[in-house]
Amino acid sequence: MLVIVKNLSSRVTFKWFPSYSSQYFNIQRLMDLSKKVFGKWLFERLMKMTFYGQFVAGEDHNSIKPLIHKNQAFGVGSVLDYSVEEDLTQEEAEKKEMDSCVSEAEKESPGVDRREKKYKAHRQFGDRRGGVVSARTYFYADEAKCDAQMETFLNCIKASGGASVDGFSAVKMTALGRPQFLLQFSEVLVKWRRFFNLLAAQQGKSGMDALEQKLELEQLKESLAKLGVGNKDDIENWFTGEKLGSSGTIDLLDWNSLINDRTKISNLLVIPNVETGQLEPLLRKFTVEEEKQMKRMLQRVDVLAKHAVDNGVRLMVDAEQTYFQPAISRLTLEMQRIFNREKPIIFNTYQCYLKEAYDNVSVDVELSRREGWYFGAKLVRGAYMYQERSRAKEIGYEDPINPDYEATNRMYHKCLEFVLEEIDHNRKANVMVASHNEDTVKFTLEKMNEMGLSPTEKKVYFGQLLGMCDQISFPLGQAGFPVYKYVPYGPVNEVIPYLSRRALENRGFMKGSQRERSLLWKELKRRLLNGQILYKPVY
Q1: Residues 348, 336 contacting (CB under 8 angstroms)
Q2: Looking at the DSSP assignment, which residues form a beta bridge with residue 273?
Q3: What is the sign of the dihedral through the CA atoms of 126, 128, 129 and 130?
Q4: Which is nearest to 277 in space by CA: 240, 215, 219, 232?
Q5: Distance between CA atoms of 82 and 95, rounded to whole angstroms?
Q6: How far is residue 445's CA from residue 508's CA, in Å, rounded to a whole number?
Q7: Residue 78 and residue 76: Cα distance in Å, rounded?
Q8: Residue 56 lies inside a defined structural domain of this protein
């Protein structure tokens, strides 16, 4: 879908997304031609008067302030997002991905370790930009580059704090470290959860919602002993925590707590092997540098969270591909446990096009309830559907995506209603309804009205992209609802990849939105008839 390059001769097409590649190619070719015809200065001026001016707030922290203040005057806040991306060919992106996702142990002895193919890097899907419209993509170069990207996020947090009193800032985990760790930790978390489901099935509790599966403790100990997973003393020690197993049952949250913090990060990456009856490392060895890289990623995340607290900014962790997401969600959860004690600072993102979305939301809400911290969620439909489906089909694992758009809508509303009910019962939950779908916004407003949830409590937020769905954002803001625009910024030439994706997304969006076009034509006619072509609202 996206091929980001510096000149026409270096462009290639995605084998698995030819139509997206073709559309993107045409947009890039048009922009390249425009730059040659008009020159750099005039091209940038034209972009700022048109496409750039519609979807990007400005070039730097100072130039975005007028737009932020104008939006604030109409009750619309900002989620700042520095949208500059690296300019890579597909081959360069694939090489970086393979270099950063394959461990030294795998390079030395490929195929020896018991890795699942979903959680391994595959060259044909190495360029993670393929089939993705709205999400930014980072590729690992080295630790210095991760430090530089952390500094960019820190500056964004600072700018958000200076621009408004209740702002958000968005971050991506893949920008903060080598993605090898996210792949490996995700595989560990999934295998432990799968092992829990196996044990639940042995107790006749399969096919239930995640939190309804409560395993009888004594029966669980017997099952683990029969499987040979640890000796009797080890198994006994696992369940002797302060609250662990005190009710005589173990649920998924209790089970997840067995994967705890250890001094050596690589010690987290152990999995149960039912065949051998042993807890085994995911990889046979980790180098000292790989261990350091894992720790540095966690340290960068911690620095950003502390900076957000200091600047009074809420930090929104973006969702990514399903082979990274279990680790991203777990790391975000750990930040929430630390920093969301007094108010919601850290927000996790839940992709509702995933079959497991409801289980993920309900499990995390229950954990926040038990531990007494503020739950923060951003609900989205998802940005990686085409890529996820193609990868699952070609690599050979279950498609993680809901079967159709209607199923995704049902999942979104199911997750949203669950969080709204939690807010109704416990004012510590918070949710951002990040959607351009008017039906979803209406559904939210109706549920809030039924439950007596006032917008002044600021527990339910709404979010849309800058330049899109203003007919949703501004009426909500003027009616007193907390609503935010996702505000990208950066130099014109460096946000071209972002703008190209906006062109593709907006084209598809406008095709399916007769109401949006009708409102635009109505306003244009009003201005023509009233002589207000250059009309600017007073604020």
Answers
A1: yes
A2: 278
A3: positive
A4: 232
A5: 25
A6: 26
A7: 7
A8: no
Q: Residue 66 is encoded by which pair of tokens? A: 């007028």
CA distance 484 to 294: 33
Instruction: Tell me what pLDDT residue 305 has.
Output: 95
Please check whether residue 442 lies inside any domain of the structure: no
Structural domain count, the chain = 1
304 close to 154: Cβ distance less than 8 angstroms: yes
**CA–CA gap between residue 429 and residue 347 (Å, rounded):** 11
DSSP helix, strand, coil percent of the chain (3-state; round to 5): 55, 10, 35
CATH of the domain at 199: 3.20.20
pLDDT at 8: 28
Report which of 291, 292, 278, 273 is spatially closest to residue 195, judged by C-alpha positions.
273
How far is Cα 84 from Cα 258, in angstroms, rounded to an integer? Answer: 40
251, 211 Cβ separation under 8 angstroms: yes
Burial 480-510 (b: 16+ CB within 10 A, else e): ebbbbbbbbbbebeebbbbbbbbbbbbeebe
Number of H-type helices and E-type strands within the chain: 19, 12
Q: Residue 3: inside a domain, yes or no?
A: no
Which amino acid, one-letter code, is at 450?
A: E
Query: Mean pLDDT per segment of 10 residues, for the chain of length 539 residues?
Result: 30 45 60 76 82 87 89 92 82 91 75 79 88 78 94 92 81 94 89 86 86 88 78 74 68 77 51 64 68 88 95 95 94 94 96 96 95 96 91 95 95 97 93 95 96 95 91 94 93 78 58 68 85 72
Maximum C-alpha span of the chain: 84
Of residues 332, 413, 320, 324, the one with CA closest to residue 373: 332
β-strands 76-82, 215-216: how paired? unpaired
Report the C-alpha gap between 519 and 198 in whole angstroms. Answer: 54
Instruction: Report how far residue 31's alpha carbon sits from residue 51's, in angstroms, rounded to the nearest whole number.
Output: 11
The pLDDT score that the predictor gives to residue 310 is 94
Instruction: Give a yes or no: residue 118 inside a domain.
Output: yes
Q: Provide φ and ψ at 279, rounded to 5°.
A: -85, 120
Phi, psi of 133, rounded to the nearest 5 degrees:
-95, -55
Q: What is the DSSP letter of 318?
A: P
Q: What is the pLDDT of residue 40?
A: 78
CA separation (Å) from 466 to 433, 481, 487, 502? 15, 17, 6, 10
Using DSSP, state whether 459 is helix, strand or coil.
Answer: coil
The pairing of beta strand 76-82 with beta strand 483-489: parallel
The pLDDT of residue 239 is: 75
Q: Which two tokens stand for residue 118?
A: 């979903």
Please report which helix (H) or strand (E) contains residue 395, including its range.
Answer: helix 385-395
Q: Determine the structural domain holding residue 250 and report its residue range.
A: 85-434
Q: By the 8 A CB rule, do 72 and 114 touch?
A: no
